[in-house]
Amino acid sequence: MRSLRFALLATVLAASTAFASPTDPKSGVEYVTLAQPQPVQATGKKVEVIEFFMYHCPHCNALEPQLEQWVKKQGDNIVFKRVHLPSSGPNDPEAHLRLTLEALGKAEEFQPKVFKAWHVDRLRLNTDAAIIDWASKNGLDRNKFLDAWNSFGVTTKLRRLPQITSDYKVDSVPTIIIDGKYQTSPALVYNSVKTQNEPALFGATLQVMDALVAKAAKSK
């Protein structure tokens, strides 16, 4: 009887994914719908897209070139934001770096530079001291960087990150949130495409994101 139950479960799961595809994604397969949608800052017909990522994550680094092209392609259809997952808690140094760069208006300019430091130069930017030293050696004024790093605004946002991550039900990266209510990721999209080839998997993930942006835009 136990084997029969497992066989029936396998049949149900197979049926649920049989008609799933990146261009016609299904909730529970290539994406999940949050039980409690989160507020969005995008206005009008624009759709908010948030990438949860970590600088030291190799998959986030690998996704970056394709994601950048996707954001450019979407243009004025979306408002794109990034949130650094605070993997070590409310004082996570990498998340602190991201928020400091945002405060300085340098976040997107330095996104590829930080990825390069981690994944090409093999620098472990995972302590306050290492990050501050790296920033001062890479074109950022040390005093201005420290002022932003220690500012009330940055430290307040840093303390709130674990709650934000929890609200969006994010427990791995890269994870994408569309319009505050749809969550997708390469890990979820793998359910239908079944490929471990990263460029192909990322391409399929971006197709799911296309479909979810279109779905969200129709409801506005």
UniProtKB/TrEMBL annotation:
<dbReference type="GO" id="GO:0016491">
    <property type="term" value="F:oxidoreductase activity"/>
</dbReference>
<keyword id="KW-1015">Disulfide bond</keyword>
<protein>
    <recommendedName>
        <fullName>Thiol:disulfide interchange protein</fullName>
    </recommendedName>
</protein>
<keyword id="KW-0676">Redox-active center</keyword>
<keyword id="KW-0732">Signal</keyword>
<feature type="signal peptide">
    <location>
        <begin position="1"/>
        <end position="20"/>
    </location>
</feature>
<dbReference type="InterPro" id="IPR023205">
    <property type="entry name" value="DsbA/DsbL"/>
</dbReference>
<comment type="similarity">
    <text>Belongs to the thioredoxin family. DsbA subfamily.</text>
</comment>
<dbReference type="InterPro" id="IPR050824">
    <property type="entry name" value="Thiol_disulfide_DsbA"/>
</dbReference>
<keyword id="KW-0574">Periplasm</keyword>
<dbReference type="InterPro" id="IPR001853">
    <property type="entry name" value="DSBA-like_thioredoxin_dom"/>
</dbReference>
<dbReference type="GO" id="GO:0042597">
    <property type="term" value="C:periplasmic space"/>
</dbReference>
<dbReference type="InterPro" id="IPR013766">
    <property type="entry name" value="Thioredoxin_domain"/>
</dbReference>
<dbReference type="InterPro" id="IPR036249">
    <property type="entry name" value="Thioredoxin-like_sf"/>
</dbReference>
<feature type="disulfide bond" description="Redox-active">
    <location>
        <begin position="57"/>
        <end position="60"/>
    </location>
</feature>
<dbReference type="Pfam" id="PF01323">
    <property type="entry name" value="DSBA"/>
</dbReference>
<feature type="domain" description="Thioredoxin">
    <location>
        <begin position="7"/>
        <end position="214"/>
    </location>
</feature>
